[in-house]
């Protein structure tokens, strides 16, 4: 068995074109069984196009792709039967109840009525929706609908779960509850592949990830590896009234390995935030406020893509 044969997803030189537009430009990806793998990047980076090829709903334009050891263009139905898919937009039937959404979806996979009834009970408990079992979907909150969408994707006990922007549009409480459900799936051995442009989400959920920009992979590794490779140990944030940060830039530019200029602040990338802050004060720079923090994936993103998080 080759290394590629041991991967649940293996892509080599994968390309997706839409007319003259090349959305995915020859990427190489390998996802191991049992890991949580992420595609990180801004809108338009090629993340969703890649996920649709893996989900066997969009044919590749060039390159090689194997999912669960099979070719999506030849074995699409067999692969889809073993996948769970959480699309970016919920596709629930709003006129059915929570329970009915799960039971009807289970029947698409050929499961018996007894099986789908039992699975619906299990999945409603997993998604913390048991008390809403007989409620129609339409009045549910966004977080509840997202949890129901994830529960529905598990009705066929998938080996591989694909999640496209799983927490987009949710408030912080709903996001954290959803993260907790995904942790449970990871510990149960389900392989997760997710796309996100939320840096904290990728850092929380992913064992390993790739950063995409312009249809290409620009970095790969664990969150800790990427931070160590592309950023410094600490970041000193100097906040100013809008526009005043540029006046301070030439004064502090030599105090850090790298300086990012944002609309209301300067980010100084440094090994020692306290020492850099003392040097800032020695140069008579007086920001409105300061913060010393550890580097995050957001800092890696700024380094690699050179623009704000959401285009």
UniProtKB/TrEMBL annotation:
PROSITE patterns: ABC_TRANSPORTER_1, ABC_TRANSPORTER_2. Keywords: Antibiotic resistance, ATP-binding, Cell membrane, Membrane, Nucleotide-binding, Translocase, Transport. This is Lipooligosaccharide transport system ATP-binding protein. Belongs to the ABC transporter superfamily. InterPro entries: AAA+_ATPase, ABC_transporter-like_ATP-bd, ABC_transporter-like_CS, ABC_transporter_ATP-binding, P-loop_NTPase. SUPFAM superfamilies: P-loop containing nucleoside triphosphate hydrolases. GO terms for biological process: response to antibiotic. It is found in: Cell membrane. Residues 9-239 form the ABC transporter domain. GO terms for molecular function: ATP binding; ATP hydrolysis activity. The keyword rRNA-binding does not apply. It is a peripheral membrane protein. It comes from Goodfellowiella coeruleoviolacea. The keyword Cell membrane applies. One of its GO terms (cellular component) is plasma membrane.
